[in-house]
TrEMBL record, chain A:
InterPro entries noted in UniProt: AAA+_ATPase (IPR003593), ABC_transporter-like_ATP-bd (IPR003439), ABC_transporter-like_CS (IPR017871), P-loop_NTPase (IPR027417)
Protein's name in the database: ABC-2 type transport system ATP-binding protein
GO molecular function: ATP binding; ATP hydrolysis activity
Organism: Rhodocyclus tenuis
Keywords (A to Z) from UniProt: ATP-binding, Cell membrane, Membrane, Nucleotide-binding
Automatic annotation (TrEMBL), chain B:
Sorted UniProt keywords: Cell membrane, Membrane, Transmembrane, Transmembrane helix, Transport
Family note: Belongs to the ABC-2 integral membrane protein family.
Record PROSITE patterns: ABC_TM2
Record membrane topology: Multi-pass membrane protein
GO cellular component: plasma membrane
Name used for this protein in its record: ABC-2 type transport system permease protein
Cellular compartments annotated: Cell membrane
Length: 307, 376
């Protein structure tokens, strides 16, 4: 089966700024693909190029079997794109927004589809409320409902859960997994690590460059990190001393613990044991997290423009 | 899937959405009613000017030296630009109806003989008084011509009762010379220019500023559907405004309505379309609402100043008339005055109708071409 997204060498400049560099991406049909990267790394720009909202300066490839450069009109019909910023109409009600979007996509059985979407949202009594007066989390949910109306084959979700409460976030991810099980491809950008771990595969973008792709486990193991957990009274006091130890790459605080990470085989374990004994601390082996892997990845690559 | 019917459904979707949004936007709604009323009050007062070189047709049935001398004196006064071609009475009358000339001066067949005999022959002056300000100054100059023309040519001649000729001035189309007759039809054009261009000018930039444009672009809607779908509600609003002004014109200013109302509304419809296509095009050129507003005023100012609304068109220098001829308002004013005050029919109006269509075609082409299908 052909991948849902298969692009190579996508580039985008804004004036002098090279915002996306030689992006190559393959996303299989039915896959949940996570898109991660620091602010301004080019996630939104990449997603916009995939659905034809921005024209790549160069590159080639296809999306749902259509050419990304020439057939964006056909791609749009089968893509549900949820923008990062709320982009439904504030001065239309919930029902009017859904109805308008359904008309734009020429949804069959329009009013049934809209009623169904409102019921699924649990907004039955509130369909006359203006979208602009919804709380942030509800706006996100409404946007998702709007981009599912025309039963798209590919969902492009740009930070869909920003500002959404934990329960709603969990429901949201359950829904994403159901859609994926039904064969819908989902590309979702996020800053949350727990969400990243729920994805089948991930891509990590920084300064417009793809730094890593793979399953969460692959990305962690590719960094070759070893992590120790240091505990003890007033452990935070020692964080700068620990950072200065040879071979330490990351030190992160978690409540009464410090997570110290370094390369796999450089004798850091012995070094830490000596430090802990001297300061009355306890050391135990831990597991490097996805977050450790991403931060390590970013620290060890530099902005090609700054160089 | 039938793409044609699909696109019609999308088109209706856009129209419905615009209507709902308009209904919720109180300020815009206030503008629709407020602007016509405000402008009626503001522009009810005319601004006085004294244009020269007004086009004049002369019908000389008796081409003797005395009549020629009188015409020469008219030219010397600089108020008249006399057409050189000899004209028949019927032809001159048509030119007056079409607005090609403002005056028709006719000399009777036995003018010279009657003058010499001291019979005080009449000179008939027909004035197109739809724009009374333009005609006023020139008419008063004509009244002073007379003895000073003939006395040097006829030595020893004594005009009877101090007057050698009888000047018969016929004010056509607006005999009482009321400027509100002229201003009120013009107001229809000015109000439509201002509100139609501005409201649609804001329509697209508003989407862009609020971020909803991204959502609209992500749907299969085409530029043509979006642009035309957004202007339809404003066509109805424009027709509503025209009705308001016409009612005021009829019942407050007592402006006569000679021609066909149906024809008037047809012309208004075309003019509204011209302004809306311009507005929607500006709107896709502008980056934000402020820019759209600035562009609107950049268009609105020459429209008001150079179209013949504020100052008589013929009183303007050539370069200004050239700019004026490119503005839809200029042609619209002539058309509306022609219908309302002269009762002109469609044949007479054609020369000023095609420029409106040309304007729409050119601007719409530019708009669809510059519509940005992407966000960059
Ligand atoms: N329309 C634009 N014009 C100019 N520069 C832009 C435009 N859109 C984005 N950029 C720049 O491109 C870079 C990438 O932006 P983008 O929105 O893709 O980042 P992102 O990864 O989505 O960030 P975030 O996590 O904050 O949403 C940024 O430096 C941004 O300033
Ligand atoms: Mg973004």
């Amino acid at each position: 089966m052909a991948p849902a997204i298969d692009v190579r060498g996508l580039n985008k400049h804004f004036g002098e700024r090279h915002v996306v560099r030689d992006l190559a991406l393959q996303v299989e049909e039915g896959e949940i693909f996570g898109f991660l990267g620091p602010n301004g790394s080019g996630k939104t720009t990449s997603i916009r190029m995939l659905c034809g909202l921005l024209r790549p300066d160069s590159g080639e490839g296809q999306c749902l079997g259509f050419d990304v450069l020439r057939e964006s009109a056909r791609i749009k019909r089968q893509v549900g794109y949820m923008t990062q910023k709320f982009s439904l109409w504030d001065d239309l009600s919930i029902a009017e927004n859904l109805d308008f979007v359904a008309r734009m996509f020429d949804v069959a059985e329009r009013s049934a589809a809209v009623a169904q979407a409102i019921a699924t949202l649990g907004l039955d009594g509130r369909q006359k409320q203006l979208a602009g007066t919804l709380s942030g989390g509800w706006k996100q949910r409404l946007s998702l409902a709007a981009c599912l109306l025309h039963s798209p084959r590919l969902l492009l979700l740009d930070e869909p859960t920003a500002g959404v409460d934990p329960k709603a976030r969990r429901d949201f991810w359950e829904q994403i997994h159901q859609l994926s099980a039904a064969g819908i491809t989902v590309l979702v950008s996020t800053h949350y690590m727990d969400e990243a771990e729920r994805c089948h595969r991930l891509a990590y973008l920084a300064w417009g460059q793809l730094l890593a792709t793979g399953t969460p486990a692959e990305i962690v193991s590719a960094r070759g990190l070893s992590t120790w957990i240091v505990r003890g009274d007033d452990v935070q006091r020692h964080s700068s001393a620990l950072r200065a130890l040879p071979g330490v790459r990351l030190v992160a605080s978690f409540g009464a613990e410090l997570h110290v990470s370094g390369g796999a085989d450089n004798g850091l374990g012995g070094e830490l044991a000596r430090f802990a004994a001297a300061n009355g601390l306890a050391v135990a082996h831990g597991k490097p997290s996805l977050e450790d892997a991403f931060i390590d990845l970013m620290q060890n690559t530099s902005d090609p423009l700054a160089a | 899937m039938n793409t044609a019917s699909a696109s019609l459904r999308r088109w209706f979707g856009i129209i419905i959405k615009e209507f709902i949004q308009l209904r919720r936007d109180r300020l815009t709604f206030g503008m629709i009613v407020g602007i016509p009323i405000l402008q009626l009050l503001l522009f009810g007062f005319a601004i006085n000017t004294d244009p020269k070189h007004l086009p004049t047709a002369v019908v000389v049935s008796d081409a003797g030296p005395l009549a020629r001398a009188w015409v020469a004196a008219m030219k010397n006064s600089e108020y008249f630009a006399v057409s050189e071609r000899p004209l028949g009475e019927a032809e001159a009358g048509e030119m007056l109806a079409r607005g090609e000339v403002q005056f028709v001066v006719s000399f009777p067949p036995d003018f010279e003989r009657a003058l010499v005999r001291g019979e005080r022959p009449p000179i008939l002056v027909e004035v197109d008084a739809t724009d009374p300000i333009a005609a006023g100054g020139a008419t008063s100059v004509l009244e002073k011509l007379g003895d000073e023309v003939f006395t040097p040519l006829l030595p020893g001649y004594r005009p009877p009762a101090g007057k050698s000729v009888e000047l018969r001035v016929h004010k056509r189309y607006n005999p009482e010379g009321k400027s509100s007759y002229n201003i009120v039809p013009g107001l229809i054009g000015v109000i439509l220019t201002m509100t139609m261009v501005l409201m649609t000018g804001l329509a697209m930039t508003r989407e862009r500023e609020r971020g909803t444009f991204e959502n609209l672009l992500a749907t299969p809607a085409t530029p043509f559907e979006i642009m035309t779908g957004k202007i339809v509600p404003y066509i109805l609003i424009g027709l509503l405004q025209v009705t308001l002004v016409l009612l005021a014109a009829r019942w407050i200013f007592m402006v006569p309505m000679e021609g066909s109302l149906l024809l008037l509304y047809a012309i208004v419809f075309i003019f509204i379309c011209a302004n809306l296509t311009l507005g929607i095009t500006l709107s896709s050129l502008a980056r934000n609402q402020l820019q759209a507003m600035q562009m609107t005023f950049f268009f609105f100012l020459p429209s008001i100043l150079l179209s013949g609304f504020m100052f008589p068109f013929r009183g303007m220098p050539d370069w200004a008339q050239m700019i004026g001829n490119c503005l839809p308002l200029t042609h619209f004013l002539i058309l509306v005055r022609g219908i309302l005050l002269k009762g002109n029919g469609i044949e007479t109006l054609l020369p000023h109708l095609w420029p409106l269509f040309a304007f729409i075609a050119a601007v719409l082409a530019l708009g669809v071409k510059t519509f940005r299908k992407t966000l960059d």
